[in-house]
């Protein structure tokens, strides 16, 4: 979307942007943190998080880690094939999701002028697919299509439709209506208007969203093998199931290295995907040529076009590698019809309610710990308070490595060391939330205006005083928004940790699918969707009240 240009002032300098509006001092500013604190205290009691238990748990984890070394990967050709399969699952699933998300987002946007029932249907599909984690979809598709990467790719696609569709909908709604009205006045139909205006303007942002989602999906696809959906997770599941901990450690190390390398590549590609705007120029996907009505060709545009062609080829190759035959599709369709028929009537029991409640407690309690520890790490990682560059770089490096390990891998390690139950799930989520929150907070602190801090220091304020009075007011909106986003992600992850025995609703879900108790499966899915959507609405309300 083109950026809005700010006219230069009389001295030829672009004026500084208006400072962010500070959060409103309302009753909600104090009530919401108090409620979250009360939920956290209750969650600590429910999960039985005690200093003695944590100390004993770390001793058990240390012993387990000792049994994992020296690490080994096993047969390298087999592992390389599984890594390739993981990439194919992520690429195929992301590509399918991107293609499906475009018409869904166009129908869900407020700018859609067609029948209202189509808009309602598109919005419902986006919300439902976003609420169900990819690992839950993987359990269902393994039951429908059998073991293998096809189930994994469909799981990635179905969950990603909700995420990509939501972001695309926001972009479509923010685009200026003037070009759309102008093309519509020429007599063009609805599809021609969409392609000529909305789609064309949104293409750079859409490409960036898809690449960002691909990075996330590669992380997700690395563990889908735990439920039989293909990829390197298959080898990890076998190693842990056979108590071959050295090979499990080697596979986890391969996953970490793979994700770090792919994250670096993804960042480089996202930077090259479009020419971002400077202080006085528009963002554009390609520069103008000699004729202003004709796009120009230069090295960046040639590179982007070649990258697009390579992406299409990779997507098609990944699809062909899934080995989805017509016979398998027919059997899958029959299984899907049987499963959907078995969903009626859904069964919702007290055991399901307890599992959802436990998932909620794990998520919010872990989020509180992650946000607090992440804030400390973020402050130490920036130069606004503690100005030790070596410490900042070291902490950021550690966070990058910690973020490279999927949540469920942490859960597997903690379950193996501490036993079944929500305590293992809480520890896994707390580590994940800490890494995620510290990443968000560090980026936010780096982007605040240092002027107020330097001005306070110039009049004799100490570093802590300058940070509290100069940095914190600017940082609070980002702190609240990123904390709520972290809680939202933690809730989705807590719903699947039970698959490996780490508490929550995941265990019941896995058992209901494998035992063909589809009525219970339907009850769990409906309950999970209701809880996730309710939490999203509460988070949206909290943002409006506090920020």
UniProtKB/TrEMBL annotation:
<feature type="transmembrane region" description="Helical">
    <location>
        <begin position="516"/>
        <end position="535"/>
    </location>
</feature>
<feature type="transmembrane region" description="Helical">
    <location>
        <begin position="135"/>
        <end position="158"/>
    </location>
</feature>
<dbReference type="InterPro" id="IPR000515">
    <property type="entry name" value="MetI-like"/>
</dbReference>
<feature type="domain" description="ABC transmembrane type-1">
    <location>
        <begin position="356"/>
        <end position="539"/>
    </location>
</feature>
<feature type="domain" description="ABC transmembrane type-1">
    <location>
        <begin position="83"/>
        <end position="266"/>
    </location>
</feature>
<feature type="transmembrane region" description="Helical">
    <location>
        <begin position="360"/>
        <end position="380"/>
    </location>
</feature>
<feature type="region of interest" description="Disordered">
    <location>
        <begin position="1"/>
        <end position="24"/>
    </location>
</feature>
<feature type="transmembrane region" description="Helical">
    <location>
        <begin position="336"/>
        <end position="354"/>
    </location>
</feature>
<keyword id="KW-1003">Cell membrane</keyword>
<feature type="transmembrane region" description="Helical">
    <location>
        <begin position="489"/>
        <end position="510"/>
    </location>
</feature>
<keyword id="KW-0812">Transmembrane</keyword>
<protein>
    <submittedName>
        <fullName>Phosphonate ABC transporter, permease protein PhnE</fullName>
    </submittedName>
</protein>
<dbReference type="Pfam" id="PF00528">
    <property type="entry name" value="BPD_transp_1"/>
</dbReference>
<feature type="transmembrane region" description="Helical">
    <location>
        <begin position="216"/>
        <end position="236"/>
    </location>
</feature>
<comment type="similarity">
    <text>Belongs to the binding-protein-dependent transport system permease family.</text>
</comment>
<dbReference type="InterPro" id="IPR005769">
    <property type="entry name" value="PhnE/PtxC"/>
</dbReference>
<feature type="transmembrane region" description="Helical">
    <location>
        <begin position="305"/>
        <end position="324"/>
    </location>
</feature>
<keyword id="KW-0813">Transport</keyword>
<feature type="transmembrane region" description="Helical">
    <location>
        <begin position="89"/>
        <end position="114"/>
    </location>
</feature>
<keyword id="KW-0472">Membrane</keyword>
<keyword id="KW-1133">Transmembrane helix</keyword>
<feature type="transmembrane region" description="Helical">
    <location>
        <begin position="248"/>
        <end position="269"/>
    </location>
</feature>
<feature type="transmembrane region" description="Helical">
    <location>
        <begin position="408"/>
        <end position="431"/>
    </location>
</feature>
<dbReference type="InterPro" id="IPR035906">
    <property type="entry name" value="MetI-like_sf"/>
</dbReference>
<feature type="transmembrane region" description="Helical">
    <location>
        <begin position="27"/>
        <end position="47"/>
    </location>
</feature>
